Amino acid sequence: MKLKSLLTLLLITVSTSAFCTIWTINTSGFTYTPATTNILFGDTVVFTIGGSHDAREVSLTTWNANGNTPLPGGFQTAFGGGMVLPAQLAVGTHYFVCTPHASFGMKGTIVVSPCPTLTQPGLITGSSTICSGTSNTYSISPVAGSTSYTWTLPGGWSGTSSTTSITTTSSPTSGNISVTANVSCSSSSPQTLAVTVASIPPTPAPIAGNTTICTSSSNTYSVVSIPSATSYTWTYPVGWTGTSSTNSIATTCGSLSGNITVTANNSCGSSPLRTAAITVVNNIPNTPTSVNGNTEICALTVNSYN
Which of 1, 55, 106, 194 is deepest in the core (most CB within 10 A)? Predict the structure, then answer.
């Protein structure tokens, strides 16, 4: 039960070290391979050795004498190997031997270097104003000494990378893209780029203007201005004239009835159409025929005319 608990603790400890590098030491006969392992503070070492070998940390004096007296507080693996956690590997040189074979010179060293301080990545290059659902690439220059990079994206975005660039697909959510440079034992401060996500404009409000008009008459039609729109596109029946890229248009109608339509536009695309049906009255009524009825009448009499 104690062994099971220890193994569980080891696994939890390793999994919580986000950028931890795990180094493996093997054996070949009565030698460790490699004999010297260079790591950074915070890394983990795993011994994968035969069942007749272990790894015991000893003092330099004991190591030089091919002895096997354990170093107080030093690490010790079981026969067959095991894991040495970062907490057991302070900065400096750790000397270890195989307990039953130290006298044969079966020994090695682990050299732990301090964790380097990484500089903040440079400015992130890439578009800061984009459209929802589009693919965009962001990048930075390499940071000296780093071995990986961690990118974070606004909510709902997709994309993953551990290098100096990332290709993303945006959601409708604006926010910050950030990146850190990493080594096994630390990360730099993040570099951040604020990104604004735009969407196509909504459908314009109902079109205002006369819906029954006379042939060749001039009429103005308009919709309520949409803040996210940068232009508008109007269409009208064949034979009409008029042009506009704003939220209103002055037209001169032809003889055909039909629909006036408008879309609101921006760099992301065009809104759904808004439509108004217009009826064109083609002709002025003819002059009435002669008025029929008495032309001489008596006062206070009733007379009909048609």
Answer: 55
